[in-house]
Amino acid sequence: xxxxxxxxxxxxxxxxxxxxxxxxxxxxxxxxxxxxxxxxxxxxxxxxxxxxxxxxxxxxxxxxxxxxxxxxxxxxxxxxxxxxxxxxxxxxxxxxxxxxxxxxxxxxxxxxxxxxxxxxxxxxxxxxxxxxxxxxxxxxxxxxxxxxxxxxxxxxxxxxxxxxxxxxxxxxxxxxxxxxxxxxxxxxxxxxxxxxxxxxxxxxxxxxxxxxxxxxxxxxxxxxxxxxxxx
Length: 231
Ligand SMILES: [Mg+2]
Prior knowledge:
The structure is a single chain. The chain is an alpha/beta fold. It has 2 domains: 9-24 and 98-230, Rossmann fold (3-Layer(aba) Sandwich), CATH 3.40.50.1000; 28-90. It is 40% helix and 14% strand. It has a 6-stranded parallel sheet with strand order 3-2-1-4-5-6, sandwiched between helices. α5 (127-136) links the parallel β2 (118-122) and β3. The longest helix is centred in the middle third of the chain and has 19 residues, at 72-90. It is globular and about 50 Å long. The mean pLDDT is 95. Residues 16, 18-20, 54, 182-184, 204 line the site of magnesium ion.
């Protein structure tokens, strides 16, 4: 009779999306946020002038509403509808993004999966925007779950939420090695907040000085340089 061994994974790797898994994914994400605000408030708002890099979609929408002259109280009231609308709008018109994968993908995800590493997402994207983007990029199936932009106030909280979920669902053991990979200083800070190893990749738009200043445990040119032994 076969003996079945139930083994918890010894590693969890949390991935940011924009600039880490995909880049140059086109104007659709930005357009979805802008059109959502227009649809919900009737006011033309823009992401121009908002430092969206490494920022949560929920925060971006809040800043857009404020910049459009909407009061904070009204912004809080319309935010849920705007987030819903943005996610609906993003479901159509996004092209095939398989040629927008960052270097080393999807090979590295395949290799990590084969080694039994649990992969999940920690991203500022709203849930249905993030999943649809990864579906169009052909890599959604590698990720067990995600912590997304509307789920917590900060990226650090999202990272903690992802770690807790992996433990709660019994995907990893208590001594599992946990790593967060991202392209922005806010990813590095989030890893620190959650008490996990941080790896910064230079495939986004952050200047190297900014990444170095944030103090990642490791700074890589891109994911092709990832040594699988350290995650
Ligand atoms: Mg990013």
